[in-house]
Specification:
Helix content is 29%, strand content 22%. By secondary structure, it is of the alpha/beta class. It folds into two domains: 142 residues, Rossmann fold, CATH 3.40.50; 150 residues, Dihydrodipicolinate Reductase, domain 2. The chain has a six-stranded parallel sheet, with helices on both faces. It has a six-stranded mixed sheet with strand order 10-9-11-14-13-12. Strands 3-4 form a two-stranded antiparallel sheet. Helix 1 crosses helix 9. The mean pLDDT is 95.
């Protein structure tokens, strides 16, 4: 990734996703003078350690865009709508981490490994997908090279960090209280998340699915440019801090060989195969936390589908990293590679 000459604003710099974005930029030694840490007025003036110095958090003001080539927005939908409009008018590229623009036909929804070429038709805004969609479409894209995929069934196991820092605190507080037989509060979710599972992520819709589940369905089809693929999802919140996992069943149009499946996954950019059941090697949330790659394992034929047309697998992916911040920065890199005119303000 070579974006060191880009001037980048991180909107939501004090939040979980924004902090991970800054950590990634720091790992690439992105110049501190080419970063603006932007957050709500209550965080104005806060210091964030960066390399051997400190970034000073600023609340947003219009003229801050004069010093930027791009902003990554990890904030509320209202913030995304307001700032995206202002940034576009100033010729500052917007990478939005939220759901605001994902299904807008005029806005590319991008996972660079899958559809990086879509950045070429952006009109000032590019969206990143849901953190559960990203690893799923990478796996599907890898395996549709072998054989056309007819159907995908997914169950997710989603960490509480997908809800935010208060949910992480509630998980820890509830767990401590339960271990010591003390009373605990239930505020973030409808039921306790400590030592519990909730088959309920986002609001329920009239079709019985949740918004989160339908996001995965619709976003996947948009990214893959394939409306023919049938996708069904069940999203579950689990008592894990970071990293989402998914159990995936894929039905192909014809017979596939496991060796071909493993090889395609192994050679796909951004995927690491962790699959040796004789040594109990398989992906876990703890293993994938702070990792760039999507970890995939438990790869096997689906015995419920005849003629060797189906496989089952398990994956785990850091929802704050590849599921959000890293993907956004990779999109910036993709734009820089493919479209020199986008960053015309660079000298």
């Amino acid at each position: 990734m070579d974006i060191s000459n880009l001037r980048i604003g991180i909107v939501g710099a004090t939040g979980a996703v924004g902090q991970v974005a800054l950590n990634i930029l720091e790992s690439y030694h992105h110049p501190i003078e080419k970063i603006e840490a932007i957050a709500s007025p209550k965080s104005h003036g806060k210091k964030i350690k960066y390399l051997d110095n400190y970034l000073t958090v600023k609340s947003f003001y219009n003229d801050i865009l004069n010093s930027l080539d791009a902003i990554i927005i990890s904030a509320t939908s209202d913030v995304s709508k307001e700032l995206a409009k202002i940034a576009k008018s100033r010729n500052v590229l917007v990478i939005d981490d939220g759901s605001t623009f994902r299904m807008d036909d005029t806005v590319p929804l991008v996972v660079p490994e899958v559809n990086g070429e879509d950045v070429e038709w952006h009109n000032g805004i590019i969206s990143t997908p849901n953190c559960t969609t990203t690893p799923l479409v990478m796996v599907i894209d890898s395996l549709r090279q072998i054989q056309k995929i007819n159907r995908v069934n997914v169950s997710t196991y989603q960490a509480v960090s997908g809800t935010g820092s208060l949910a992480r605190k509630e998980l820890i507080d509830q767990t401590k209280a339960m271990l010591s037989s003390q009373d605990y509060k239930v505020q973030i979710y409808p039921y306790p998340i400590g030592f519990n599972l909730l088959p309920h992520v986002d609001d329920f819709l009239t079709n019985g699915y949740t918004k989160e589940e339908m996001k995965m369905v619709n976003e996947s089809k948009k990214i893959l440019h394939d409306e023919s693929i049938s996708i069904s999802t069940t999203c579950v919140r689990v008592p894990v801090e970071i990293s989402h996992s998914e159990s995936v069943q894929i039905e192909f149009s014809g017979e596939v060989e496991i060796n071909d499946v493993v090889e395609n996954l192994r050679t796909y950019s951004g995927i690491e195969v962790v699959d040796n059941i004789t040594k109990n090697h398989y992906p876990t949330p703890l293993d994938s936390t702070d990792q760039d790659d999507v970890l995939v394992g438990r790869i096997r034929k689906d015995i419920s589908i005849n003629e060797s047309r189906g496989i089952s697998l398990w994956l785990s992916c850091d929802n704050l990293r590849k599921g959000a911040s890293l993907n956004a920065l990779q999109i910036l890199n993709e734009v820089k590679i493919r479209s020199s005119k986008t960053f015309s303000k660079i000298k």
